Amino acid sequence: MNELDEIRAMALRHAGRHNPQLTRLFAYTLDHTTEIDPLIYEPAASLVIQGVQRMFIGDQMFEYGPGQSMIVAAEIAALGQICEASEGKPFVAIGLFLDQALLSHLVLEMAAIPELPIESGYGVSTASPPLLGAWRRLLELLDRPAEILLMAQPLEHELMFRLLMGPHGALLRQIAGSDSRLSHIRKAMTWIRDHYTERLNFKAVAALAGMSVSVFYDRFKAVAAVSPLQYQKYIRLHEARRRMIAGQAGAAEVAFAVGYESASQFSREYKRLFGAPPARDAERAKASLARVGRP
Questions:
Q1: What percent of the chain has pLDDT over 90?
Q2: Which residues, by range, are in coiled-coil regions (predicted)?
Q3: How confident is the model at residue 295, as a pLDDT?
Q4: CA 58 – CA 44 distance, rounded (Å)
Q5: Cα–Cα distance, 136 to 94 (Å, whole number)
Q6: For residue 41, what are the CA distances in angstroms to 17, 73, 76, 132, 277?
Q7: pLDDT in tens, 169-186
Q8: What is the pLDDT of residues 151-160, one digit of tens each?
Q9: Average pLDDT over residues 222-246
Q10: Nearest 10 degrees: Cα torsion 159, 165, 171, 175
Q11: Cα atoms in the Cβ-side hemisphere of radius 13 Å centred on 213
């Protein structure tokens, strides 16, 4: 059994289970392909073990499959699709939500490396044998819970070290830096998410990031692959969908509650993102959730 097979066996045993001692580590499996679904990433490192996932970020599309690692360094809006999965051979992936404090500690322990220009807020590459080994050793703790208290931190340190030394190490170093270009863009992203109902003031948000409007726009788009205004739109529409599925209000009321001034514009943009008008999409999502919840 090779390393990827060992990781797959462990991931299948623990997929969907929450371990209160390893709250940022997760294993995920799905036995069918999916439609293209909108999502918002959190900063995380992940590894596909089996199957293929297709991602659309901005105007870019890429696929990653067995043995490939993905780093997401910011809260990025994307479209995702599981395009290779079946009952006999499900899609399997593992991941770890990133801890900025831990990364900062490791970077301080490593030799000083100058900050590089931001190319994007994400990256995909083939995992090296040392990186696969680090993933395996961390995941093994789920089979040996008595060791978690003592071993979780050094094993996570090893995994982060391997990632820092890999193709996207510069991206992770941007996360670690409290005064990095990426940290300033993430600060602006947080402000947009917290004030998504308000009209976007480019000058004020750029000032928050400590940049001119033109520099801020270019760097924001480099990280998120969409403009600040498009990013705000994604946040508004995701929140609208959450409220619609929860049955909190009708489409028109939700539209105005999340910051739209026109219900018709809201419906057009909602359909463009989610593939159906608000009410129909909400009913479809409720039906899907009901099927998942049945014993």
A1: 61
A2: none
A3: 37
A4: 19
A5: 10
A6: 20, 9, 5, 23, 24
A7: 888 887 776 667 888 899
A8: 999 999 999 9
A9: 91
A10: 50
A11: 6
pLDDT at 283 over 90: no
Q: Which long-range contacts (CB under 8 A, 24 or more apart) does 196-203 make?
A: 196/232, 196/235, 196/236, 196/239, 196/258, 196/259, 197/236, 197/257, 197/258, 197/259, 198/259, 199/259, 200/228, 200/229, 200/232, 202/228
Q: How far apart are CA 66 and CA 50, in angstroms?
A: 5
Question: What are the beta bridge partners of residue 70?
Answer: 46, 124
Q: Which pLDDT value is given to residue 179? A: 62
Domain boundaries 230-292, corresponding CATH code: 1.10.10.60
Instruction: Name the residue ranges covered by the structural domains of the chain.
Output: 3-176, 181-226, 230-292
pTM (2 decimals)?
A: 0.80
Q: Rounded to an integer, what is the distance from CA 63 to the centroid of its chain?
A: 15
Burial class from Cβ neighbours inside 10 Å (0-12, 13-18, 19+) for residue 239 reads middle
Residue 287 pLDDT exceeds 80: no
Instruction: State the fold for domain 3-176.
Output: Jelly Rolls (2.60.120)
CA distance 1 to 275: 42
